[in-house]
Every structure is written in C-alpha cells, then in structure tokens.
Amino acid sequence: MSQYDFRFECGSDGVAILPLDRPETLTSLTFTIYGQLERLFRDLDDDETVKAVVLTGHGRGFCSGGSVDEIIGPLLESELDDTLAFTRMTGAVVRNMLHLSKPIVAAVNGIAAGAGAVLALASDMRVLSDNAKFAFLFAKVGLTGADMGAAWLLPKIVGTGRAMEILMLGDKITAEESLRIGLANRVVPLDDVLPEALSIARRLAAGPGLAHAMTKKMVWNEWPMSLETAIEQEAQAQALLLRAHDHREFYNAWMEKRDPRFLGR
C-alpha cells in the first residue's frame, strides 16, 4: 500500500503481513513510521478483508527501535510539547494494537530492541527465531523503562519481579530464555519463523473471529477487575456469543457432521 513506508499486504486467507522494511538500519523506526503504524492499527478494525496480522522485520532484525539519527537527535532539540506529542504517539501505536479486535502474531526474526521489543510485546503471540533477542534498552540510554506501555504489559506476561529486572537492567534476553519465562510462545529455526507465524495466523483467521476478538478484549480488560466483576463480565460476554452466528454455525455443523464455516459474527 503506497500510503505506508513499509510493505503491507493481505492474502486471500485473511492474513495480512506487515514487514518493517528498513533492513539497512535493522528496521529502525522514524517519526513517519510511528504515525503510520498508529493509523494502520486503528484502521484495520474496519478492514473486513483482514482477519489476522503477522508483524515481522525485513532483513537481519525485527526492529531496533527508534532511529538515533532521525528521532533522538531531533527530539533533543525540540520543545517539551513536541516531545510529549511524540511519546503520546508511540504509546498510541501500542494502544491501537491492544484495542485491535484481530489477533497479531509477531514473527521475531532477529533483534527486537527498545520500541521494537515493545511492538513484539504488544502482539498477542510471539514466534522467535533461535537467534533472536529482546533488549528493553530504555534505562541503558537514560530513559525510563516505562515506555509505550511496557511497564503495564511486561509484568502481566513475565511477572513483576522479572519485569523490573528486564526494564531496569536492559540486558539482552535470548530466545531460549524468552521461551522459559513466557515472553516467547514458540522458538524455531530462523527459516521457520515466518512460516510458523503464518501458520498460527491462518488458524486464527479461519476461526471464529468474534470469539477471538472477545477473548483478546476480556484478557486485557479483566486485569484491574475484582474476581466478582470479572466473572460477571465473562458471563455477559459469553451470553452474547452463545447467541451469535458462529456458535450456532458450530452447532449446525456438528449436527450435520461437517466443518463449521465461521463468519466472525
């Protein structure tokens, strides 16, 4: 799509591949790319052709974070209002990823550093190559590790104590360690990263989209809830889906001894 500084294509299977495409800089991010990602993840909710998204990097890295030359340098010369507008925009990228009703699978093909690590973190599942690494580098460059929602997301995935260590020390986390602590869902050889992520995304795209959307929404929404509130929210959500098309289609298919044809509604 010409309106983006990265390639973005959706196949007939409903899976859109979004490869961050600046291999000469380990796919670093620019002001423009941040803005385009914010808009893309917002607009995808209304794109009925897209059922699932695979986010990956082109070249040796997944994403090395914000460009030192194109972001950090100019920000040091900017006014506070401009700096705050930028940090709000980067946070909006993650917010739109989490609010997107369609699943996102990160195919982490190499280093995921800084903002790149948070983009992978904000994906719903993460498939890593066996040579991939995470590096939440913010504290190492004199910035808070609480960036783009990382301090909200990471403890929910790996626990508070480990998240504190990762965000404060900024050490690289290998693929093997990522799998052990739950930061990775799967670790595969490099050549298998994208195919594995696509396989997962295709399963999701072919499945009951409304059920996936509600599951994603409830997982994130329930964190601050009491047990009683969460159970009531789940009761209401499940009551709605019990009356939705896809569940009735499952029942009809079961009775007719055929595979269900889910429509995501």
Please give a structural write-up.
- The strands form 2 sheets. This protein has a 6-stranded mixed β-sheet, with helices on both faces. A 3-stranded mixed β-sheet has the order 5-7-8.
- The protein has helices at 31-43, 68-76, 80-99, 115-121, 150-158, 160-169, 175-181, 193-206, 209-221, 227-242, 245-256, and strands at 9-10, 15-20, 52-57, 104-108, 111-113, 125-129, 133-135, 173-174, 186-188.
- α1 runs parallel beside α3 (80-99), α5 crosses α6 (160-169) and α9 (209-221) runs antiparallel to α10 (227-242).
- It has 265 residues and is α/β, with parallel strands linked by helices.
Topology of this structure?
Layout: E1 9-10, E2 15-20, H1 31-43, E3 52-57, H2 68-76, H3 80-99, E4 104-108, E5 111-113, H4 115-121, E6 125-129, E7 133-135, H5 150-158, H6 160-169, E8 173-174, H7 175-181, E9 186-188, H8 193-206, H9 209-221, H10 227-242, H11 245-256
Parallel strand pairs: 2-3, 3-4, 4-6, 5-7, 6-9
Antiparallel strand pairs: 1-2, 7-8
Helix pairs in contact: 1-3, 5-6, 9-10
CATH architecture designation of the largest domain: Alpha-Beta Complex
Strand content: 5-15%
What is the strand tally? 9
- The percentage helix is 40-55%
Radius of gyration: 19 Å
Shape type: globular
Number of helical elements? 11
Integer count of domains:
2
Mean pLDDT equals 95
Low-confidence stretches: none
Structural class by SSE content: alpha/beta
**Largest sheet strand order:** 1-2-3-4-6-9
